[in-house]
Amino acid sequence: MQAVILVGGQGTRLRPLTLTVPKPMLPLMNLPFLEFQINLCKRHGVDEIIMSTAYLPEVFQGHFGDGASLGVKLTYVTEEEPLDTCGAVKNVEEHIRGRFLVFNGDVLTDLDLTALIAFHEEKKAKATLYLTHVEDPTAYGLVPLDDDGRILEFLEKPSPDQVTTDLINAGTYVLEPELLDRVPAGDRYSFERQLFPGMLEDGLPMFGFPSDAYWMDIGAPAKYLQAHCDILDRKLPFDFEGREIKPSVWVADGCDISAEATVKGPAILGPGCQVAAYAVIEGNCVLGPGCRIGEGARLEAAVLHEGCTVGAGSILNCCVLSADVTVGERVNISGEAVLGGGVVIEDENDLRHGIRIWPGAKIPAATLHF
Ligand code: GDD
Ligand code: MG
Question: What does the angle CA 310 – CA 315 – CA 318 come to, to the nearest 5 degrees?
Answer without folding.
Answer: 100
